[in-house]
Every structure is written in C-alpha cells, then in structure tokens.
Amino acid sequence: MAMNRKKKSKIEVAFIYVFFVFMFIIIGYPLLWTVMMSINPGSNMLVTQLIPDNPTFEHYKWLFTNENSDYVTWYKNSLGVAVANSIGSVILTSFVAYAFSRYKFIGKKYGLYMFLLLQMFPALMGMVALYIMLTTIGLTDSLVGLTIIYLGGQIPFNAWLVKGYFDTIPRELDEAAKIDGAGHLRIFWTIMLPLAKPILAVVALFNFMAPFMDFLLPRIVLTSPEKYTLALGLYNFINDQFSTNFTRFSAGAILIAVPIALVFLLLQRYLIGGLTAGATKG
Amino acid sequence: MASQKKKFDLSQRRNIATILSIIPGIGQFYNRRIMKGVLLLLISSAFLIATWDYIDIGIWGLFTLGTVPREHHSIQLLIQGFISLIVLAFAIAIYAYNLMDARKDAIAIENGKPNPTLLQGIRDFYNNGFPYFMVLPGLGMLLFIVVLPLMFMVALAFTNYNQYNAPPRKLLDWVGFDNFVNLVNIDIWQDTFVNVFTWTIIWTVVATTLQIVLGLFLALLVNDKRIKFKRTIRTVFILPWAVPAFVSILIFSALFNPTFGAINRDILSQFNLMIPWLSDPFWAKIALIMIQTWLGFPFVFALFTGVLQSVPADMYEAAEIDGSTRWQKFQFITLPHILFATAPLLIMQYAQNFNNFNIIYLFNEGLPAVRGQNAGGTDILISWVYKLTFETNNYNMAAAITIIMGIIVMGFAFYQFRKTASFKEEGRY
C-alpha cells in the first residue's frame, strides 16, 4: 500500500515536470525564434532559418553604424524621457501620497475615490481627446509634451501605491519627530522617504521603463522620425515593410527587451509586494 | 451671548467679518489682519483682471460653441470652456477660504485671543496649508492631463463633430443624445456595435479567465513540496511578463503570419494544416486569446505564488487529520484564501483586458475587414474607437462609444471601491 502510494506520487511528479517542459517550450519558442531571426543573414522572411547556417551580427551593426539608422537617436530620446519621467514621478507622487497618508484635509476622501476611478480608465480614452486638444493648440511632436503627459497619467496609480506603503510606516515615528520639533518637510525628508525607499524604487523603475515599452502615446504625439522613441521607431520598422525588415526589428527589439527583462526579473518581487500590500491591507 | 448664537445677529463680530469679506480682504482688515487682507485683496483683483475675459468667453463658448463660422473655432472654445471651469473651481475654493478665514479670526477675537504676530500668522498658514501645497502640483497635472481630456471626450459625444463637420470651416452644435440614438438606430452602426460589443465581452471573459486559471494552476504546481528547482522554474514562468509586451505581440504577429510565419510553416505543415490566422476572423480571435493567455498568466502566477506562501500550514495539517481530500483542501482552504487576498487585482485584470488596445492593434490592426460593418473582425471597443478617431475622424461617434465603455469601467471600479481596504481605515485619522 505504502509502496503503491509512493509510486503514484512519483508518476504524478513526473507528469508535472513534463507539463513544465511543455510550458517552457511555449514560453521559450517565440523568444528563441526572435533571437535567431536577429542573427539570420538577409531580411527575407521566407528564407530565414530557425538555426541559421551562417549566423551574423550585421543587423546589430546596421542599427548603430548605418547612416540611415536613427536607432541611437531613438535610444537617446527614450532615455531622456525615461529619466525625466522617473525622477518627476517620484517627486510628484511622493508629495501627493504623503499628504494623503498623513494629513487630514478637505476633499481627501473624494481625492482617493478619484484616484481609484481614474486608474481604471485606460489612457487611450483620454488620448483621443488629448490628440485633438494637442493639434488644436499646436503642441504635437514634442518630447517635453510627451513627458508631461506621462507624468500626469501615472499619478492615480502610483499615488495610490505609495500611499498604501506610507500607511504601513508606523505613525509613532513621525509623531516622535514632531515632538522633537521637526517640521513637515523634515519629517517627509528624513523619515518617510528613507523608509519608503523600496516602493519609491519601484515607482522610479516602472516610470523609467514605461517610455521604452509604450508605443501608443508616442505614436499620437510624435510625428517626425528624429523625435521618435524606441518603441515607435521599431514599430515603424515592420509597419512599413513587414516582411523585409523583420530581422532588423528583431535585433532592435532584443536590445530593448534584454535589459528591461533583466531589471524586471530582479525587481518583480517588490512590485508584487507593493501591489498586494496596497490592495489587501486591513 | 450663548442664547443669541442661533440667530443671525449683525452685531456679532463673526457675522460682520464674514459679510465684509464678500469683497475679499475687507473682513480681514476689519479683524486688523492687515497683511492678510492686502494679500487677499491683491490676489483676487489680480485674478479677476487676468482671467475675466478668458472665463467669460470660455463659459459663453461652452454653451454656444461659437456663432460665426471660421471666426469662432468650436473646439478651441470647448477647451477654453473646460479650462475656465477648472480655474473657476479654484477661484471659488479660494473665495470660500477667504470667507471662512475672516469668520474664524473674528471668532478668535470674540473669545479674547490676541491677534497673532506676522511670523506666527505665516507659520499657521504654512501648517494648515501644508497638505494642500503637497497635493497641488499633482492635482494640477492630473486635472489638465487626465481629467480635462476625459471631460472633453464626454462633451464631444454630444456634438456633431466629424470629418464633414469640422471647425474652423464649420461650427459644431450640441445635439443631445443623437449620437447614441444613431448608434442603435442606423443599421451599419447598430450591426457594428453589436458585433464589436459581443466580441469585447467574450474576449474579456475568456482571455482573462484563461490567464487566471493557467496562472493559478502553475502556481499550485510549482508550490508543491515535491518539486525541485523552484526558483529557476518561477523565473522562466515570469519571462513573458518581463519582455515588453509590444515586442512579444509583434513577434507573435509574425509567427502567426500565414505565409512566412513559423507556426504554419514549421509546425502545422507537419500535419498538412494551413490555418488562415490573420485573414479569418474566427482563427484570428483564437490566436489573440492564446497570445493574451501567454502574455497575461505570469502576472497572475507571480501574484498567487506570493499569496500561497502566506496560507497557514496548520490549516492543511488540521484538514489532513480530518481526512480531507486534496480537492477539498484546495476548495475550502487554498482558494478562499488566495481569492480573498487578490480579488481586486483580478478584477483589474478583467478591466485591463476589456481595454487591451495594444494586443488587438499590434497583432492585426483589428483586421480582417468584415462586410457590412465599419470595424474589423477582431476589433474590440477601444480599438474601434481608435480607428473612428484617427482613421475616419468620426469623433462624435468615437466619443459616444467611449462613454459607454466608461460606464462599464465604472462598474468594475465600483466593485473595487467596496473591496479596497484602504478606505476602511479612513475613520482613524
């Protein structure tokens, strides 16, 4: 009887592993395929091979050295928007979250409702209007405009996230500091911010990555190729002539995806922690 | 004194101060808070001088949308109108503050408190105003970048703004609920709306449920005591989430391409199959659902993996002593525990897929085209709205559909409100 049960358990575990291997293939195949595409010579999709006979880095080289390639410009644009967005979002949201977490003021409760409601609305709903507004006042094709829109759009979600984290910092800490004569900003600067570093890091990181991943908003706001961000530029690689530039797209995509994926894998634990803490506390 | 309190008594200092500050600052002068009075008077008169014309035209424009074609630009007037409303709201808030402030100071004088020194006054102002200063920059950006476009969108739904009726050549009019009526009454709109709406619901329910079920299933399996290499396995399962979605979707779009895509060419050809993934609506939908499951399950997986570790082990032990089966343990311990902890986030997943523009548009641009309707076969509401706006400039219909979507999203949000614990503690402070 005991023997039988052990055997059954072993078979079960074997099945689980088989299923895992199956999942690995499904997850890995598209990713591997992209890597292989990027080192295939030529650009004709019909003759590409999964494992090329003579792999080449010509597409990577093209992106950085060819005079027709705007890849480096796009990288710079994205980086600029990303840095500004990352710093700006931490400042804006930590201010808002601090007030919502520690102070009593008129409209506080409705403010919280507003944040919750607004983060449910996809950016696109407002974007159509934003597009009409931008064209009407002639403020399109500007990286600054793009950054400002990102900054405003991230507030509801992130303020909520950071507020949830601030709430978990014991109130006794800032009350003690207040008795010692510390002012509002001093408490914010010397107590709240250092203790909230993990969640602020998450906010900074995700707002840093957003401009690298988003293609929709740049597509609406930006029109000239030298202003493009990476996602938009890459999209246009294959949008124009799908079958001819896919190998190049693969190379460009890998150069974005690898760093982002690495950072992401390192930090995803904090994000999950922050999400569940903010949503289920109490 | 106490007996008179209920009646409005003009001889009371607090009432005189309040009435005087109908002109901002005068009440403060009466309270001998000269600096504050001067400041309030200056700010309010500067505000009136600077914005009077703008607000006047804005509010007028909001009602009329202009009266002379080419000279009046309805859209600009509409935007100006909404900005005026926001500015006006701030003005009213400051005005209300002025009234309350004068009254408060007067009460303090009635009670015989000495007027604070200038320095002290500034300090009080800073202390009381601090949360407002902190919120103001964020609130301002939120209002102009998120709320203003949403208000503008709602307004568009009640105008006749489309390709043929566009400013500055023509003026727009308020048309009431005409756009909504057309959506239901005009055949082509009605057919398209019904088809797109049905597919949106199916898409949301099926794709989201699949990704949740797969995520849950894998989380349970990896969590099993007998499984080794847990860290590695988890890392691989999170990979699809880590790769930027737009890259994965474009890759899948190529993989599913009927002529050169690897799925038909390398895999299905072994079985002599050719599936028209992109040109047949049915197969395109199947492909989309499969891709979204691939993209979406890692988040759920990571979430559940985190929560599963917090299920108290003694509950399982107790259940084992009672002789529960594995299914019973899952049903009565694991499932309630993880659902309780994650329900709001799962609801968010449904809301996100309901509005998942990226996958629909990047995979196939909502195509293939379908006869007798002005949306593609795989278009969901939001990608249809995108097309109506950017391709055919049917702004009014796009806005009307957006409002319908907004109402549905609010349904999700309403559920979220009730579930979210943060509100429950509001009473504490």
From TrEMBL, chain A:
UniProt keywords, alphabetically: Cell membrane, Membrane, Sugar transport, Transmembrane, Transmembrane helix, Transport
A single GO BP: maltodextrin transmembrane transport
Sections of the chain in a coiled coil: none
Chief location bin: membrane
Gene3D superfamilies: MetI-like
Keyword Nuclease recorded: no
Bilayer disposition of the protein: Multi-pass membrane protein
GO CC terms, sorted: plasma membrane
Sequence ranges assigned to domain ABC transmembrane type-1 in this UniProt record: 75-267
Subcellular location: Cell membrane
UniProt keyword Transmembrane present: yes
Signal peptide: none
Molecular function in Gene Ontology: ABC-type maltose transporter activity
Family of the protein in this entry: Belongs to the binding-protein-dependent transport system permease family.
Alphabetical list of PANTHER family matching this protein: GALACTOOLIGOSACCHARIDES TRANSPORT SYSTEM PERMEASE PROTEIN GANQ, MALTOSE TRANSPORT SYSTEM PERMEASE-RELATED
The protein's name: Maltose ABC transporter permease
Organism this protein belongs to: Paraliobacillus quinghaiensis
Top-level taxonomy: Bacteria, Bacillati, Bacillota, Bacilli, Bacillales
From TrEMBL, chain B:
One GO location term (cellular component): maltose transport complex
Transmembrane residue ranges: 38-63, 75-97, 132-158, 201-223, 235-256, 282-311, 332-351, 395-415
Domain ABC transmembrane type-1 intervals: 197-416
Keyword terms of this UniProt record: Cell membrane, Membrane, Sugar transport, Transmembrane, Transmembrane helix, Transport
Localization annotation: Cell membrane
GO molecular function, one term: ABC-type maltose transporter activity
InterPro entries to which the protein is assigned, alphabetical: MetI-like (IPR000515), MetI-like_sf (IPR035906)
One BP term from GO: maltodextrin transmembrane transport
Domain of life: Bacteria
Main location as per UniProt: membrane
Membrane topology: Multi-pass membrane protein
Family: Belongs to the binding-protein-dependent transport system permease family. MalFG subfamily.
Primary role: Part of the ABC transporter complex MalEFGK involved in maltose/maltodextrin import. Probably responsible for the translocation of the substrate across the membrane.
The name this protein goes by in its record: Maltose/maltodextrin transport system permease protein
